[in-house]
Design brief:
The complex is a heterodimer.
Chain A lengths: L7 E2 L1 H15 L3 E5 L3 H4 L2 H6 L4 E3 L4 H13 L3 E7 H6 L2 H9 L6 E5 L17 H6 L5 E3 L4 H13 L4 E5 L4 E2 L15 E4 L4 E5 L3 H14 L4 E5 L2 E3 L4 H11 L1 E9 L4 H12 L3 E7 L9 H7 L4 H11 L4
Parallel strand pairs in A: 2-3, 2-4, 4-5, 5-7, 6-7, 10-11, 10-13, 13-14
Antiparallel strand pairs in A: 1-8, 6-12, 9-11
Chain B lengths: L1 H4 L4 H5 L2 H11 L17 E4 L5 H10 L41 H14 L6 E6 L6 H12 L5 E7 L2 E2 L2 E2 H4 L5 H7 L3 E6 L3 H13 L4 E6 L22 H12 L1
The chains are: A alpha/beta, B alpha/beta.
Chain lengths: ~325, ~250
């Protein structure tokens, strides 16, 4: 399931390439972008199928509702822009014109989290998962690497209904093996087995958490690492509860605000089913800032070494 | 039905009655057996972007036989298919899309129009917008998109009753010169008396022949037909009481 050799690949390319593959056989797939098609990689689809690609220009709200109209007529629109503009700017359109009528629109947003980098706070979506998770009937997926993005995009095209997929800007180490890993929307992926602490994560922080778990091991802490790609519907909740039963303490790690995202989702289910001590690691109810991707991850405590420091301190072991 | 529901939007519903009547009786092809019709896919699509005029749309649909007239009295009540603003969730025959949050219907319509073109479907898309609604910025995004994408299968009607909740549209935020704005956005336009069925019909016939997206600006009177409601912003969103209902029905039936 896990990749043996280290490879660094762009999750955004995975998106663009998969769209082209799907578009060849499924003629109902149409793609919309708001002047960011090179950044989101929907330009690949545009090149292959220009008749089924629509650039809305810098008009995201119009784009979302246009997608709703296309879906009303049986098309399967994939709509892309940066996570900031896809969600915050279009929240009303997504809620009222896509989710309320339960239309088959797939919102694939790139550039989620602080790793947008130098562009700074105005472009760093730290609340997008929170917004999306609060709307009824939308499926929210945060894949971790190139290979998982490919499977998730295909999965989205096969299920009916609104889907939000958040893709990182960063080129990432591939975690999952392309031939043996099978994406399962109902389960958490147990990436490391352990008994001292459960670390739950998803998206681009997975690689950092895996590396952090290896560092913790050297300190005598056996961490169980769970990757939860689908946090709405949170069908993997049972796996998180199961692990928490074993370890008794849970850490959540996400490239997102600690309010409303993975940390909140985990706390919601644990507080009801198995009250457990939870430390939420993410951006602490603040706006981001400019900086290099790595420096930002470090500043917000999301690199492997920072995570290792914080988690060992929390567990009372230095 | 607004009286029975004890809430609703009589003013903006009465201003668009003739528009809906002409569209459903003389212009659009829409089978009232809805999805059961073999010609369902050929129907002209209608989107009520000013979703608060739902009472008028439901009335026309019921009268055309889309659903039983008695169902009108469930309007805005718990469990009703006739939601305060039109919804596709309830499965009500005749409703194409869910609307209510203003400014979104035209963008949805451009998506529908694009899909029809991709499918080589010759049906037209009709959208009814309120003039107050034209203050929403995304309407202008959509106007730009429709012209850019050469959507000659898209026809909008602007129910220009010159009133919105807080008063006269020209005092709140003027749209003028509306006609010039639309033309400069690449649309063909026609201004008509929105209560004159002949003028409306002629405008729609012209619109269907247009090679550009087409806007019918319908000059209307908010609350048309009920003396105490006419041109009175106070009747945007409230229901008449028993006595007021009696007067309204007498005047409308006169």
């Amino acid at each position: 399931m896990l990749k043996k050799t280290i490879e660094i690949k762009s999750p955004r390319n995975a998106y663009g390439e998969t769209l082209v593959e799907l578009g060849a056989t499924n003629k109902n797939i149409v793609v919309l972008d708001a002047d960011l098609s090179c950044s989101t990689q929907t330009c690949k689809f545009q090149k292959a199928y220009p008749d089924r690609f629509f650039n809305s220009g810098i008009a995201e709200q119009d784009m979302m509702c246009t997608a709703a109209g296309l879906a009303t007529e049986g098309k399967i629109p994939f709509v892309s822009t940066f996570a900031m503009f896809a969600t915050a700017r279009c929240l009303d359109q997504i809620r009222n014109s896509i989710c309320y009528p339960r239309l088959n629109v797939k919102i694939v947003a790139t550039h989620g989290g602080v790793t947008v980098g130098e562009d700074g706070a105005s472009h760093q979506a730290l609340e997008d998962i929170s917004y999306m998770r609060s709307i009824p009937d939308i499926c929210v997926i945060i894949p971790a690497d190139y290979n998982e993005v490919k499977q998730v995009v295909k999965y989205a095209s096969e299920i009916y209904g609104p889907v939000y997929i958040r893709i990182a800007r960063t080129n990432l180490k591939t975690v999952f093996d392309e031939s043996s890993y099978v994406f399962n929307p109902e389960r958490a992926v147990k990436v490391r087995e352990g008994s001292d602490v459960t670390i739950v994560t998803n998206g681009e922080t997975l690689m950092e958490v895996i590396s952090c778990a290896d560092m913790l091991k050297e300190k005598g802490i056996n961490a169980e690492v769970l990757h939860v790609p689908v946090i709405k519907p949170f069908l993997a909740a049972g796996d998180v509860i199961e692990s928490a039963k074993k370890t008794g303490v849970v850490i959540t790690v996400e490239n997102h605000s600690i309010i409303g995202g993975l940390g909140s989702a985990v706390c919601e289910v644990l507080s009801q089913s198995l009250p457990t001590r939870v430390l939420r690691i993410g951006t602490p109810d603040c706006f981001g800032q400019s900086g290099e991707q790595r420096s930002l991850l470090e500043f917000y405590g999301l690199t492997d070494t920072k995570l290792c420091e914080n988690i060992s301190r929390y567990l009372g072991k230095k | 039905m607004i009286h029975a529901a004890k809430s609703g939007h009589p003013g903006g519903s009465l201003s668009c009655v003739e528009i809906l009547s002409v569209l459903y009786n003389k212009i659009m092809f829409v089978p009232c057996d809805w999805k059961k019709s073999a010609d369902f896919h050929k129907r002209d699509r209608f989107i009520l972007s000013k979703g608060h005029a739902s009472a008028a749309l439901y009335s026309v649909l019921a009268q055309k036989g889309f659903f039983p007239v008695e169902e009108l009295m469930t309007f805005r009540k718990l469990g009703s298919r006739l939601q305060g603003h039109p919804s596709t969730r309830t499965g009500l025959e005749g409703i194409e899309v869910s609307t209510g949050s203003l400014g979104q219907g035209l963008s949805i319509a451009t998506g529908v129009a694009l899909a029809l073109k991709l499918n080589n479907n010759p049906a037209n898309v009709f959208v009814l917008l309120g003039d107050g609604e034209m203050q929403e910025g995304s309407v202008w995004e959509a106007l730009m998109s429709a012209a850019h994408k050469k959507l000659d299968n898209l026809i909008i009607v602007i129910d220009k009753n010159n009133l919105q909740i807080d008063g006269d549209t020209n005092d709140v935020k003027s749209l003028e010169p509306l006609n010039d704005k639309l033309e400069s956005f690449g649309w063909n336009t026609k201004e008509v008396d929105g209560h004159n069925e002949d003028e409306l019909e002629k405008a729609f016939i012209e619109a269907k022949k247009s090679t550009k997206p087409f806007a019918v600006i319908a000059n209307t009177i908010k609350g048309k037909g009920v003396s105490y409601m006419e041109n009175n912003a106070g009747w945007h969103g409230k229901a008449p009481n028993d006595d007021e209902l009696k007067i309204a029905l007498e005047e409308l039936n006169a």
